Amino acid sequence: MTRMSRVAVALVLCAACKPEGAKTVTVNIGQVIDRSGSIATPSWADSIRLAAGTANQALKQAGRTDLRFALVDANSGNAPDMARAGAIQVVKSQGAKAVITDSSQDDIGINMLAYDGDPAHALEVPVVCMACTSPNINNPSANDADPMKQAALRNSKGWNFRTTMSDAYQSRVVAHMLVAAGAKGDVNGDGKFKLAIYASDDPYGHGFSDALRKDVLQFASHAVVEQVFHDVKAVPTEYDWAADVAKLTDKHNMSSGKVDGIPDAVVAISFPKFEVHFTKAYLESKTKVRLLHTHNFRAARVLEALSSAVEGQEGTSQAVLGDGNSPRVFSDDLKALTGQVPAFRDAAAYDAAMTVMLATVHAMRNNRLSSAAGALPRAGTVRRRGEVRLRRRPGVPGDPPGRQQVTAQALSAAMCAAPQRRSTSRS
Length: 427
Known about the structure:
Blueprint: H1 3-12, E1 25-33, H2 42-61, E2 67-75, H3 80-93, E3 96-101, H4 104-111, E4 127-129, H5 147-154, E5 160-162, H6 167-180, E6 194-200, H7 203-219, E7 224-230, H8 241-249, E8 265-269, H9 272-284, E9 290-293, H10 300-306, E10 314-315, H11 325-338, H12 346-366, E11 380-384, E12 387-391, H13 408-417
Parallel strand pairs: 1-2, 1-3, 3-4, 4-5, 6-7, 6-8, 8-9, 9-10
Antiparallel strand pairs: 11-12
């Protein structure tokens, strides 16, 4: 069965809720993704566009002429302030019923709008992140000095979702690799295992770095861990990467202030634009200290910029695609659309859009709603002890008598309750 057929089957399940003679309603989905910053990847938008086209074609095949999906755009710049402004734009000005975004810092920044106390900022639509990996996101026990940020991380209002896994899982793999080398991590023979972690100074970098430090100390309690962070607002062509390489590979520990020996390994955790320049500086330093990369190193822009210099580099990452027919069809369709094979996170971008669209149909069917139109922020919901209880919003002026509409809360709940579709991505 092709992916189009599978989507059509999922959508046709809602055919019974289609009212006779219903007009076509367009549900806008906002994509607030990086177009110009440190993780800009054009194929992410292409993958989201492919998902929308696939869903609309499937709806047509299923006889669902009352519903279609459209995309509205804003540039996140991989900068929280820009991402917040973009999210407000696509929801408040362009009527988006859900937002797809990218990095951890952008996702957290957008979700903070739900907790800043300003009604003008309240999006009240699902936010789906397709490239955020910070372990603190959606963690009910997350702590932060900023109460608003802590509330966003804990996601008590339940608006936030993601289609990529937490770095907490990848950090354990990295820790196992490090401890398995040499004498429980000691590869330079000085009698101790020292790890230097180099990360971006943002929620992603800190979250991954802290998780890795915790796992390394769990597997090797004797280990010494140094953490060094770089400014995410740095201009890559002007920043002194060589100076950071020197700090990482000398005997001085920037975290403890002690002189505790040359590290046995350095792990890099940063965004693609920074990974390129850091890796060049690292190779030029001629240091013998082992360098391990993490998932952003496999971004297309890194591979293109470093070219043959990537030979011999090592590290960990989620897969670009999973196994089986679904990823194969996705790959074929994306290549037909763009002429390019899927890049890293393309599948997660596609899955984010498809999750929102399937949840829309699921919410309509399960709540016996006859239209996807409506002012979603006026919807009502009651949350207690983590359980969502929906109440349908009564018709507003202009609605046909008795017609009820998909609420943002119903969509959010459906994203939690909808049956699992076969994902194109794999961890």
